[in-house]
């Protein structure tokens, strides 16, 4: 334990190492139709995908930058590498990985996670998934869990049916960019009635300077199935800006349940601009657990389209903003059918001049009878340099509904701090304890017992640095 | 503390921007008012209550923005906007609490409660917070929905007709603001609502 003079809640970045680059292929900087075609050609993709990429590229060129939210003016699209292939072929076992990559993963603890009987580890190092192990049990059940490129190659009929249908390229500029240059990400297909008991896990990491990572994830949960997908991110620190712009589409069929957990811990030079959307059909349940600890700028609003009767959507979100960070995160719930319900719980902490913004959208369409919405946003501001905003938007066009929204912004309770210090706990420890208590309703939803990395990230960032 | 009490009825004042430069108790009331209402709290010790009432029917359309801007420290503002909407009326409310950097020890509250009576109603509620100081306590809440079925059922079980039960519940919902004004010994002409 550190002494009492240790800075309170010093969320110093612990994964800021970078390995020498040893890439097999790196595209030219910038984006053009040639680059987009080249990515598609190198991956030997079917014609429809190449067409889709080129169409998306044109949409990307036409679309304007969003005029709301965080400051994105420093992104220079021409100064980014859009495709890097780090190893020629994918490694099937840990030993086959190049030593630098192994070293990087060792530091963030992927092998330990494996030992804990993870259902599958799929780690993205730069553009493509280089390491992947799928539990045999899963294969027997007919569950498909692979990287998106493999998914497209081996299951083109499923991919074509769903890809880009929930988040079309013209959704927003960054969705268009991702659609044009996407590479890697996960493809998950859970057959009817199959319950995947252990969480599926993918680990993302950016290693090349000025390299934008554009992973694309597609999850399909057939009727009555269940899957929990975990994504965690850490990245080394670099001096130039880097862009991470993912697209995640999730289809939750009748009576199915999907939980998607993210622990985002990019280094502070990363723009994290992600579009995540799920469609929940009749009696389906979609849950997003979204923890944003890192990155310089995050704009991310996981959404659920509640299209089926009785569907339920949930977003649990933690945002932490330290020095030079702006977390503009939130959630969207669209109620399109009767008896639908949703719940959003957001907890944010700002410190050292950081800024957290909750931005949410609730839409209740006519006909979404007997629907209910509950939104709760709590923010802690730890010092006078920091800032917290709340921007909820509610649009209600149905009378038979119940909408509740509440938000509070405050500092750490003086009385609680005084009580703890009167019991001999140092002020730093007491503050850490209170912050941990503040976010606990959400951290307890993350299955730490399954994931050493998540455990480490949360502990290092939240507890380790305090005590 | 200053014992002065000022009542501002915005329906009579025709003024939409207010600067509170002296400490004291201020009470603001308005009914069915559209537009941008700005309340700048420029002095320590300002204690401001803002009550807004909306009763929409037919094709009424209200677009309201409020801003509680705390510039000075150690002040309090409390906003309550209640609305009942029938037929194809619409209500677009955007409320902002802004606490500037120097406005430490601010207490700011904002509440918007809406009842929808008909399917053609459209409500947009956007309660925003922008907090740049840390020693503050700010909350906002927004609820929108229909009349509580359980409460109607209870009244029916006591022998009331459903229409009467609804009337009583609506009256209770809207009268909250009159009661608050009455507590401050302020009389206003109560707008009719049936």
UniProtKB/TrEMBL annotation, chain A:
<dbReference type="InterPro" id="IPR010231">
    <property type="entry name" value="SUF_FeS_clus_asmbl_SufB"/>
</dbReference>
<dbReference type="InterPro" id="IPR000825">
    <property type="entry name" value="SUF_FeS_clus_asmbl_SufBD_core"/>
</dbReference>
<feature type="domain" description="SUF system FeS cluster assembly SufBD core">
    <location>
        <begin position="204"/>
        <end position="438"/>
    </location>
</feature>
<dbReference type="InterPro" id="IPR045595">
    <property type="entry name" value="SufBD_N"/>
</dbReference>
<dbReference type="InterPro" id="IPR055346">
    <property type="entry name" value="Fe-S_cluster_assembly_SufBD"/>
</dbReference>
<dbReference type="Pfam" id="PF01458">
    <property type="entry name" value="SUFBD_core"/>
</dbReference>
<dbReference type="Pfam" id="PF19295">
    <property type="entry name" value="SufBD_N"/>
</dbReference>
<protein>
    <submittedName>
        <fullName>Fe-S cluster assembly protein SufB</fullName>
    </submittedName>
</protein>
<dbReference type="GO" id="GO:0016226">
    <property type="term" value="P:iron-sulfur cluster assembly"/>
</dbReference>
<dbReference type="InterPro" id="IPR037284">
    <property type="entry name" value="SUF_FeS_clus_asmbl_SufBD_sf"/>
</dbReference>
<feature type="domain" description="SUF system FeS cluster assembly SufBD N-terminal">
    <location>
        <begin position="109"/>
        <end position="201"/>
    </location>
</feature>
<comment type="similarity">
    <text>Belongs to the iron-sulfur cluster assembly SufBD family.</text>
</comment>
From TrEMBL, chain B:
<dbReference type="InterPro" id="IPR055346">
    <property type="entry name" value="Fe-S_cluster_assembly_SufBD"/>
</dbReference>
<feature type="domain" description="SUF system FeS cluster assembly SufBD core">
    <location>
        <begin position="39"/>
        <end position="173"/>
    </location>
</feature>
<dbReference type="InterPro" id="IPR000825">
    <property type="entry name" value="SUF_FeS_clus_asmbl_SufBD_core"/>
</dbReference>
<protein>
    <recommendedName>
        <fullName>SUF system FeS cluster assembly SufBD core domain-containing protein</fullName>
    </recommendedName>
</protein>
<dbReference type="GO" id="GO:0016226">
    <property type="term" value="P:iron-sulfur cluster assembly"/>
</dbReference>
<dbReference type="Pfam" id="PF01458">
    <property type="entry name" value="SUFBD_core"/>
</dbReference>
<dbReference type="InterPro" id="IPR037284">
    <property type="entry name" value="SUF_FeS_clus_asmbl_SufBD_sf"/>
</dbReference>
């Amino acid at each position: 334990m550190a002494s009492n003079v240790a800075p309170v809640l010093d969320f110093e970045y612990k994964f800021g190492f970078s390995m020498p680059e040893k890439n097999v292929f790196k595209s030219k900087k910038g984006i053009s139709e040639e680059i987009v075609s080249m990515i598609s050609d190198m991956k030997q993709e079917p014609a429809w995908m190449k067409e889709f990429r080129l169409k998306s590229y044109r949409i990307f060129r036409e679309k304007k930058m969003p005029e709301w939210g965080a400051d994105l003016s420093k992104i220079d699209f021409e100064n980014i590498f859009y495709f890097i292939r780090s190893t020629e072929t994918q490694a099937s076992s840990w030993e086959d990985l190049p030593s630098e990559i192994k070293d990087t993963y060792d530091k963030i603890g992927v092998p330990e996670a494996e030992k804990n009987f993870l259902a599958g580890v799929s780690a993205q190092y730069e553009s493509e998934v280089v390491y992947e192990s799928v539990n045999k049990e899963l294969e027997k059940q007919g569950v498909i869990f692979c990287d998106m490129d493999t998914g497209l190659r081996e299951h083109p009929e499923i991919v074509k049916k769903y890809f880009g249908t929930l988040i079309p390229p013209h959704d927003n500029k960054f969705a268009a960019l991702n659609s044009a240059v996407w590479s890697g990400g996960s493809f998950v297909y859970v057959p009817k009635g199959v319950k995947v008991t252990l969480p599926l896990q993918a680990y993302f990491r950016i290693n090349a300077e000025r390299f934008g990572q554009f992973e694309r994830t597609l999850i399909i949960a057939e009727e009555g199935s269940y899957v929990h997908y975990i994504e965690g991110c850490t990245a080394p620190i670099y001096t130039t800006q880097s862009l991470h712009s993912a697209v995640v589409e999730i289809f939750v069929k009748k009576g199915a349940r999907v939980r998607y957990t993210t622990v985002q811990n990019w280094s502070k030079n990363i723009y994290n601009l992600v579009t995540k959307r799920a469609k929940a059909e009749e009696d389906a349940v979609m849950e997003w657990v979204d923890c944003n600890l890192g990155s310089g700028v995050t704009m991310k609003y996981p959404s659920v389209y509640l299209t089926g009767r009785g569907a339920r959507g949930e977003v649990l979100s933690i945002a932490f903003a330290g020095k030079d960070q702006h977390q503009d995160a939130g959630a969207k719930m669209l109620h399109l059918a009767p008896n639908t319900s949703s719940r959003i719980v957001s907890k944010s902490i700002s410190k050292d001049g950081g800024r957290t913004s909750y931005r949410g959208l609730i839409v209740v369409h006519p006909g979404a009878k007997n629907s209910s919405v509950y939104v709760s946003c709590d923010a802690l501001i730890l010092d006078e340099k920091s800032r917290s905003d709340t921007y909820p938007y509610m649009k209600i066009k149905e009378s038979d509904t119940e909408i509740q929204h509440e938000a509070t912004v405050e500092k750490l309770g003086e009385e609680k701090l005084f009580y703890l210090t009167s019991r001999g706990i140092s002020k730093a420890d007491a503050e850490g304890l209170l912050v941990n208590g503040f976010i606990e309703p959400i951290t307890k939803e993350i299955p730490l017992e399954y994931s050493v990395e998540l455990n480490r990230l949360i502990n290092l960032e939240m507890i380790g640095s305090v005590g | 503390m200053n014992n002065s009490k000022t009542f501002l009825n915005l329906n009579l004042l025709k003024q939409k921007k207010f600067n509170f430069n002296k400490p004291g108790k201020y009470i603001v009331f308005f009914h069915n008012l559209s537009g941008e209402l700005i309340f700048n709290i420029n002095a320590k010790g300002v204690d401001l209550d803002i009550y807004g009432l909306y009763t929409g029917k037919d094709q009424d359309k209200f677009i309201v923005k409020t801003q509680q801007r705390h510039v000075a420290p150690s002040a309090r503002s409390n906003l309550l906007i209640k609305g009942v909407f029938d037929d194809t009326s619409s209500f677009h409310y955007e409320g902002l609490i802004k606490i500037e950097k120097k406005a430490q020890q601010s207490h700011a509250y904002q509440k918007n409660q809406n009842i929808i009576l008909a399917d053609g109603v459209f409500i947009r509620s956007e309660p925003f917070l922008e907090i740049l100081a840390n020693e503050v306590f700010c909350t906002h809440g927004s609820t929108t929905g229909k009349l509580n079925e359980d409460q109607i059922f209870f009244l029916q079980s006591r022998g009331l007709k459903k229409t009467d039960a609804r009337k009583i519940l609506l009256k209770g919902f809207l009268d909250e603001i009159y009661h608050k004004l009455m507590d401050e010994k302020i009389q206003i002409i109560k707008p009719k609502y049936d």
